[in-house]
Design brief:
178 residues, mainly beta, globular
Length: 178
């Protein structure tokens, strides 16, 4: 069982584990009711963190989704205006937040051992596309390789191969590997 310290009745959500046994996830703090990020090492020791700009309203906060072999963590945070932004936390605890250019919302969803982040972003019309962010911070946007109405990448491996799904022009869902 893994429960964060000072967790509310809503529980602890573990979202990823790396090859060293470190896990990441989030929980609802029992005192502030804010969503807070966590890293738990192999020995069971917790590090609790908040992304800069993370909100303090109910439902806002820090949502880590992936941890790589180096201990880097990627995820999203929700500000007090309920806008989603992405972040990466290095193994020393330094957090860098970022958004895809022109994005209304940005969601980092996967991270490989090279530090490449895969994510989704929406424009002002709430149309979804994908992005890759390299370890230097450069962002490349992409869409599924066929005509579509929304691209939702989910995972990137250490070779840089990506998976996800998209909606075709008729609204049907299809998976992709790129």
């Amino acid at each position: 069982m893994v429960d964060a310290p000072n967790v509310s009745g809503q529980g602890t959500f573990i979202t990823a584990i790396n090859a060293n046994g470190e896990v990441t996830g989030y929980y609802n703090d029992a005192t502030t009711f804010t969503i807070r990020g966590l890293v738990r090492d192999q020995g069971g020791n917790f590090t609790i963190f908040d992304a800069p700009g993370a909100g303090i309203n109910l439902g806002s906060g820090t949502y880590p989704f992936e941890v790589n072999l180096s201990g880097e963590v990627a995820g999203k945070y929700v500000d007090d205006n309920f806008i989603n932004h992405s972040f990466v936390r290095d193994s020393s605890g330094n957090i860098t937040d970022f958004d895809a250019p022109g994005a209304r919302d940005t969601y980092a969803v996967s991270l490989n051992d090279s530090g490449i982040i895969l994510g989704q972003w929406t424009n002002s019309g709430f149309s979804y596309s994908g992005f890759l962010r390299d370890s230097s911070g450069n962002i490349t946007e992409f869409s599924a390789p066929v005509s579509n109405t929304g691209t939702y990448p989910d995972s990137i491996n250490n070779s840089g191969r990506m998976t996800g799904y998209y909606y075709d022009l008729n609204g049907a869902v299809h998976g992709f590997v790129q």
